[in-house]
Design a protein that fits this description.
The complex is a heterodimer of chains A (553) and B (101). With 553 residues, chain A is α+β, with helices and mostly antiparallel strands. Chain A contains 18 helices and 21 strands. In chain A, helix 1 (6-27) packs antiparallel against helix 4, helix 5 crosses helix 9 (282-291) and helix 7 (250-257) packs across helix 8 (259-272). The chains are: A alpha+beta (553), B alpha+beta (101). The structure holds protoporphyrin IX containing FE and iron/sulfur cluster.
């Protein structure tokens, strides 16, 4: 895992001290709100519906036990005892007081964390595959490159005032677990004939005008990663629209310019760049790569007798293992997903006690490493199969053992109108009602893989466009109303969902989802045909018929 | 020809406490209360303008931020925010908070 060097550490501490002074001047009235607002946003502090909200960066979603314990401490001391893990692999606190913010940033700095570049028109926190370094299908661990991108994009003077926010995601294999193509820049690290290179995509985004990122390069040489990203950002910084906030993202520029012409602009810029300035010093790169070296795995048999006999005895463990333990590339190990979606609870929320329990598990069983997934769960990337029964028992004791990873109740939902100042409608209660409707585990398992994603407004923080079933909250004459999209996908078969028809009132939306699911169960060729495959085979028509058949003409 | 004035919707002034971020409503006495029921209701344009001006003085005085006038409607002899958003803002999330269910 990457460790801060002295430069990072000094900077973060300095920045926290600077913010302490700014808050003091604001509270004493020396600074007006207009002067202070940009300073507070630069430090991840928003004013939301009920209070200030602090967004803390978690680079590529990786957390250590020390960091987790500090996050728990902050939740308990300064918030209401919980935090919200987000689709951006970050954590947000909902009940922060301005006067406490300097102390919180100082606490975060002690564990090399901060809230810098979690807001504003800069390059935001780089996100990645939560199974990085563990998945059997991975070609190259993307995190070292994520870290190189983090260092390059942190406080980049030229890119601190972009036309709009800018998000980069990086994956290291053909299977996309990071919704890479929904990002302003998406990168897939590849290896061909022993040589490392990158497929580089640009112009993806969700929000008001969802677009899949277009591929600019299929195999960019390793040494040119930063120079090429620099070229994309320069073109965007110069050509991106600043006249209209809703047209300011790079996706609009790529769309309006056209893919071929945009690629040409980038290539021209790239050709003009002095690449030697952007080559990463090989010694520095090697240090970073070494920091992401695999942990000291034990040599184990692929099959664990302890695990197998425990799951044969314990149906609950068997159910958990079937969904929440994924194969690991190291024999005898597994990747364990801790679901933050107990039926009826707000998706992605965890209490201080739960976060501490996760910290302990991380330390004892996962080489001191945990991940936040963009699906708002926590992943223990490297656990011994032998240890899973013990881990499971601890998870059960903390209400963290919900065996629903990837099932219909593993719902992504943004904070929506319960917390968010921009929302049109609530998201969390919609998620809770759907989860309660499908609470029966046998039913969930019969339905199989199904991703429901909910956003409380068109900003799409809940990724609804790429949900197999997407739900978007809108305001219809002062009432909460929900639009359904079908067939979206955030993985390597990327697709933006299609609006199915007229929307549904809050009291109707759970039934509508159930109608869609029941139609799928009737129409699928076999239990092996997932919802998404069935939708792609059948198209929207049979689902529309099921949803709207009973309506008067 | 001037359009006929639409019937005035009564409003109250809301803002967030600068230091804590708490949601507050301005009372007739010039204090800021947690409950919208305690707020001063402006029932015509002049009263609304006066309420807004008073609120702006508190913004300038660095007591509160994010000042807004919001419509209210009658409820059991009192007033409540007319919009769902403002009702949630006043009362808090509509869900059980984690650890408190
Ligand atoms: C509660 C405070 C939040 C505010 C004010 C906020 C604001 C926004 C805005 C304005 C956009 C649209 C940007 C654009 O299209 O140009 C956006 C997009 C997005 N936000 Fe949030 N958001 C909030 C919370 C969250 C949370 C909790 C998450 C994660 C669960 C999140 C993740 C995202 C993602 C993934 C996108 C869409 C992807 C894209 O940028 O195209 N945001 N947000
Ligand atoms: S999608 Fe809209 S409602 Fe949901 S968090 Fe984002 S801005 Fe808020």
């Amino acid at each position: 895992m990457y460790r801060y060097d002295e430069f990072d550490r000094g900077f973060v501490a300095e920045r926290a001290a600077e913010f302490r002074d700014q808050v003091r001047r604001r509270l004493s009235g020396e600074l007006s709100e207009d002067q202070f607002r940009p300073l507070r946003l630069m430090n991840g502090l928003y004013l939301q519906l009920h209070a200030y909200m602090l967004r803390v960066a978690v680079p590529y979603g990786v957390l250590s036990p020390r960091q987790l314990r500090k996050l728990a401490h902050i939740a308990r001391k300064y918030d209401r005892g919980y935090g919200h893990f987000t689709t951006r692999q970050n954590i947000q606190y909902n009940w922060i007081q301005l006067k406490d913010a300097p102390d919180i940033l100082a606490d975060l700095a002690q564990v090399d964390m901060h809230a810098i570049q979690t807001s504003g028109n800069c390059i935001r926190n780089v996100t990645s595959d939560h199974f990085a370094g563990a998945a059997p299908d991975e070609i190259v661990d993307p995190r070292a490159y994520g870290e190189i991108l983090r260092q390059w994009s942190s406080l980049h003077p030229e890119f601190s005032f972009l036309p709009r926010k800018f998000k980069i995601a990086i994956i290291g294999g053909p299977h996309d677990r990071a919704a890479m193509r929904a990002h302003d820049i998406g990168i897939e690290v590849k290896r061909e004939k022993g040589v490392i290179g990158f497929a580089v995509y640009a112009g993806g985004g969700l929000g008001r005008t969802p677009m899949p990122a277009r591929k600019l390069r299929d195999f960019l040489p390793e040494e040119d990663l930063i120079a090429y990203c620099e070229a994309i950002l320069r073109v965007y910084n110069l050509e991106g629209r600043r006249d209209n906030k809703y047209k300011a993202r790079i996706k609009i520029l790529v769309h309006e310019t056209g893919e071929a012409e945009f690629r040409q602009l980038v290539e021209d810029e790239f050709a003009a760049i002095d690449k030697s300035l952007y080559r990463i010093d090989p010694a520095h790169a090697a240090r970073i790569v070494a920091q992401f070296a695999p942990p000291p795995f034990a040599v184990l048999p692929a099959r664990s007798a302890i695990f197998e006999s425990a799951r044969a005895r314990d149906a609950a463990l068997a159910a958990f293992a079937a969904r929440n333990v994924a194969p690991h590339r190291q024999p005898g190990y597994g990747i364990l997903t801790i679901s933050l979606k107990p039926v009826g609870a707000p998706p992605g929320d965890a209490t201080a006690g739960q976060i501490e329990a996760i910290a302990d598990l991380t330390e004892t069983y996962s080489f001191g490493e945990a991940r936040v997934s963009h699906e708002q769960n926590i992943v223990l990337p490297h656990v011994r199969l032998d240890d899973i029964p013990e881990i499971f028992a601890t998870l059960q004791a903390h209400d963290l053992a919900t065996p629903n990873a990837g099932l219909v109740t593993d719902i992504i939902a943004c904070p929506g109108l319960d917390y968010c100042a921009l929302a049109n409608a609530r998201s969390i209660p919609v998620a809770q009602n759907i989860a309660r409707r499908f609470a029966d585990l046998d039913r969930q398992r019969a339905i199989g893989d199904l991703k429901i994603k909910i956003s409380g407004c068109i900003n799409a923080c809940g990724h609804h466009h790429v949900g197999h079933i997407g739900i978007l909250g809108v305001d219809r004459k002062g009432e909460e109303f929900y639009q359904i999209t079908l067939g979206g996908s955030g993985d390597e078969n990327f697709a933006i969902g299609e609006i199915v028809g007229r929307g549904f009132a809050a009291g109707e939306i759970t039934d509508a989802v159930e109608t869609i699911v029941e139609a799928y169960l009737r129409l699928r060729e076999s239990a092996d045909e997932t919802f998404l495959s069935a939708y792609r085979r059948l198209g929207a028509t049979p689902f529309k018929e099921a949803l709207y058949a009973t309506e008067p003409a | 020809m001037a359009k006929p004035a639409r019937p005035f919707k009564p409003v109250i002034a809301t803002a967030n406490d600068l230091a804590s971020g708490a949601v507050l409503f301005r009372t007739a006495g010039g204090a800021w209360a947690r409950a919208p029921r305690e707020a001063e209701v402006a029932e015509n344009d002049q009263e609304a303008a006066a309420l807004l001006a008073a609120g702006e003085r508190d913004v300038a005085g660095n007591k509160v931020v994010d000042l807004a006038l919001i419509p209210v409607e009658r409820e059991d002899g009192g007033w409540r925010p007319a919009e769902l958003r403002e009702r949630i803002r006043a009362a808090g999330p509509t869900i059980d908070l984690p650890g408190q269910a």
